[in-house]
Design brief:
heterodimer; A: 411 residues; alpha+beta; Cytochrome-c3 Hydrogenase, chain B; 2 domains; 4-stranded antiparallel sheet; 17 helices; 7 strands; 48% helix; 12% strand; B: 165 residues; alpha/beta; Beta Polymerase, domain 2; 3 helices; globular
């Protein structure tokens, strides 16, 4: 608790005659953050406390604002993919592919089936890492460290699959406009099969430790709840909205990248509290495994990228031995290729909600305007309403279960 | 569905209130006057069939060349029940970029409008707390406007002509 400093104690209603001692009506101000281990990111909350009860909260965000939307207006489309990595870094491939699909929509590129299935597999793996982080850290925040260790090694393992697919782990820059940059290697396939076989046991073990744990349930049930109506009014999406009982999932309502081919359930909660959010994420992990299994079983043969030489960065081998590939490589890397005029919005189901890209193109090499719809930015503003009247320790688990990622919120 | 929405909007607001009707990659878009924004969004929200009750996004935009209509706001509404998305656009001159707030209807518009204010200087009349959100409070300009170049203006090695652009 050393990070939490009592900065200001206004002597409100210092009435010594009142029962219960002289300080009974005193409100204190508590600075939670900007850097605090329990907020998982750089967020400041100035809390007004009455004893241990939160009376009011004021948020400050923007500590790691990096002007992505402004930078994007000077960058050719390929160079924007690396910006999307750094938004929700817990599930970077979803951001990458959401951006690629947005541009493909503008350019009118048809992506082959195999590439679409590969994307689905990588996106669901990313969703698994995202939910593993959120749920296991939520358990840590309530004092249960062991479960976290059981599942975290599988997040590490998924990062090894990323490495196999793109060479990077956290900021993946995975995929290209028109498909993937490489096909599944035998090692990647082997690793995904191993994950499908062995993650369920670890997940079950984690759930056995945490899900019906008396302490965990007491800490999370009826904590930080929000009604479906308020959640919709606040623009909630993703697991947080589904925990409140609304079955809005971009994957099923507006399927992209062949999600319509797969059978999966959209779990919903009833109360929208911390425990419901935990359960929804747990169930989504099982559904992700189900989707990956179906995609692996039915992985179509064929090319792993579209035939769109103007936009698909060619294979490095071709660049050295093929004149056309060299020319296109140069033009793409230098950003010499103009995009058509148009305005397009594409959204994907990110780790924590609807991640949207609103792209306005004036026919130049860079976007005229690019607006990221970041789910975290939109639902984090409901936080004060959700924690009013609860205690400080409840606020910590509420924030943890909302899965607010500073990088995504601040762009 | 899109035709029905246009029909209803035209009947309610007339041709001078709804123009620039189009569809872009499956998303319906209309342009309207600033004073029509709140009545139009309320009308679509309360409509028994359309039920545009989800505000997906709100984006500011700057067109320096469009004299008298430099600053724009794009409201992105989503009818979850019908699965229809709609962009409502409105423009105001840069000297008086005043828009009405829709925080009364959507709690989520609070930070979205603060973001548009922060980056474009769009004033949302009636907003409960119109302050900067991502940039620091001391900043005295609105950085997403097109007159602020991203790169150092003194650099001479990146002239577009040299690259055939």
């Amino acid at each position: 608790m050393s990070e939490i400093a009592l900065v200001n104690s206004p002597n409100v209603g210092l009435d010594k005659t009142q029962k219960g001692g002289p300080y009974v009506n005193e409100l204190s101000t508590l600075n939670l953050g900007p850097t605090h281990p329990a907020t998982h990111g750089i967020f400041q909350n100035i809390l007004t406390m009455d004893g241990e009860t939160i009376v009011d909260a004021e948020q400050t965000v923007g500590y790691i604002h990096r002007a992505f939307e402004k930078i994007a207006e000077r960058r050719p489309f390929y160079q924007i993919t690396t910006l999307t990595d750094r938004m929700n870094y817990c599930s970077a491939p979803i951001n990458n592919m959401g951006w690629h699909m947005t541009v493909e929509k503008l350019l009118g590129i048809e992506v082959p089936k195999r590439a679409q299935y590969m994307r689905v597999i990588m996106m669901e793996l990313a969703r698994l890492t995202d939910h593993i982080v959120c749920n296991s850290i939520l358990a840590v925040d309530t004092g249960a460290l062991t479960g976290f260790l059981y599942v975290y090694q599988w997040r590490e393992f998924i990062y090894e699959i990323y490495e196999e697919m793109c060479g990077a782990r956290l900021t993946t820059n995975m995929g290209r406009f028109g498909g993937m940059e490489r096909d599944f290697t035998p090692v990647a396939i082997e690793k995904i099969q191993k994950l499908l076989k062995e993650l369920p046991a670890a997940l079950k073990e984690f759930e056995g430790l945490v899900m019906r744990n008396r302490i965990f349930m007491d800490r999370t049930q009826n904590v930080g709840g929000i009604s479906a109506e308020r959640a919709l009014n606040y623009g909630f999406t993703g697991p947080n909205l589904r925990a409140a009982g609304v079955d809005y999932d971009v994957r099923s309502l507006n399927p992209y990248s062949s999600y319509e081919d797969f059978e999966f359930d959209v779990p919903v909660g009833t109360k929208g509290d911390t425990y419901d959010r935990f359960l929804v994420r747990e169930e989504e992990m099982w559904q992700s495994l189900r989707i990956i299994q179906q995609a692996m079983d039915n992985l179509p043969e064929g090319p792993y990228h579209a035939d769109a030489p103007h936009y698909y960065l060619p294979d490095k081998q071709d660049v050295y031995h093929n004149m056309e590939a060299l020319i296109y490589h140069f033009k793409i890397v230098m950003g010499e290729i103009d995009a058509p005029v148009g305005e397009v919005y594409h959204s994907v189901e990110g780790g924590n909600g609807e991640l949207g890209f609103h792209l306005v193109s004036d026919g130049g090499r860079t976007p005229y305007r690019l607006k990221f719809r970041r789910p975290g930015f939109i639902y984090y503003q409901a936080f004060p309403e959700m924690i009013k009247g609860t205690t400080l320790s409840d606020a910590i688990v509420t924030m943890s279960s909302m899965n607010v990622i500073a990088g995504e919120l601040d762009t | 569905m899109n035709d029905k929405i246009i029909e209803a909007l035209l009947a309610q607001f007339g041709e001078e209130g709804v123009y620039g009707i189009g569809e872009s990659h499956g998303i319906l878009q209309v342009t309207t006057e600033v004073e029509n924004i709140v009545p139009m969004i309320h009308f679509l929200y309360a409509h028994p069939v359309f039920k545009f009750q989800f505000l997906t996004d709100l984006a500011g935009i700057h067109f320096p060349e469009a004299k008298g209509q430099e600053l724009g706001v794009i409201y992105h509404l989503h009818s979850l029940e019908n699965n229809v998305r709609l962009w409502i656009k409105a423009y105001a001159p840069i000297e008086a970029p005043n828009f009405p707030t829709i925080t009364g209807l959507f709690a989520t518009a609070n930070w979205m409008e603060r973001e548009a204010f922060d980056f474009y200087g769009i004033i949302f009349d009636g907003h409960p707390n119109l302050t900067r959100i991502l940039n620091m409070d001391e900043m005295d300009y609105h950085p997403m406007r097109k007159e602020y170049p991203l790169e150092d203006a003194t650099r001479h090695d990146k002239i577009d002509e040299l690259f055939g652009r």
